[in-house]
Amino acid sequence: MGLDLYIEAKVTEKSTGRCISACDPSYTESPLPDPSDDIFAEDGQYFCVRWMCGWDAGAVLNSWISIINRHQKTAYTGKETLIPFPQSALREMCSCLYSYGCSPESSRFRYAIEDSYWDTERREQDTALPYSVLADDQRELHHWADHEGTEQGFVIWANALRRFIYEVERMHYENRYQPLNATDCDGVQEDGSFMLPDDFIPAEADKRKFRENPQDYAWSFRLFNSY
Question: Which of 90, 107, 152, 194 is least crowded, fewest Cβ atoms below 10 Å from its Cβ?
Fold first, then answer.
């Protein structure tokens, strides 16, 4: 079984604590069912902000959990499926993604990136290392330039997450927002056909109230670790 890693969010009304969001943009029932209903359990309230999979997701998982633990004084290990985290952790999680966009020399010839300059242990090690002099058969059949696409992927994901952070902060500080292009399962994407969070707020009345006064609503975040 592979690793799928998601940053997920839900939106609730501050005055009542009622969730107004849903994971499936095709869900059109209004009003939303009670969350205790098996058909619409709590998992159905969260929508995807960022999705990663495979080796790339494995590279950032422990780093993100370290960030989350530090921000909320918890002790998650990565064995948990669902890990809630505060909004305050988002910027550092985004910074961590950017750091994988230029990985250490130790990852230069690896099929999968194993660490980044964000990691504390990596920063404390001697960085004045010569370029790799590994024999060809030790480089896992990868040419030095093959690594570029992997690093670029992290930069693209980090840019998408940063756009989302700015929109959440615009709601918080200015009480206005601009929906972002997204897909139903990958999260924020420039070429996505859904609008986040608009298409993830099924009830038209809730959508209208949210647009008029986004500061009346609270955001909750969690990490979904499918491994």
Answer: 152
pLDDT tens column, 153-184: 999 999 999 999 999 999 999 999 999 999 98
Residue 199, both tokens: 């298409």
**How far apart (Å, rounded) are the C-alpha atoms in residues 204 and 199?**
10
218 closest CA partner among 7, 4, 18: 18
Give the model confidence (pLDDT) of 40-50 as tens digits: 467 789 999 99
Side-chain-side CA neighbours of 50 within 13 Å: the count stands at 27
Residue whose tokens read 């921000």: 71
CA distances in angstroms from 149 to 111, 145, 218, listed in the order given: 12, 8, 37
Given a contact cutoff of 8 angstroms between Cβ atoms, the answer to whether 186 and 51 are in contact is yes
Statement: the pTM of the whole predicted model exceeds 0.85: yes
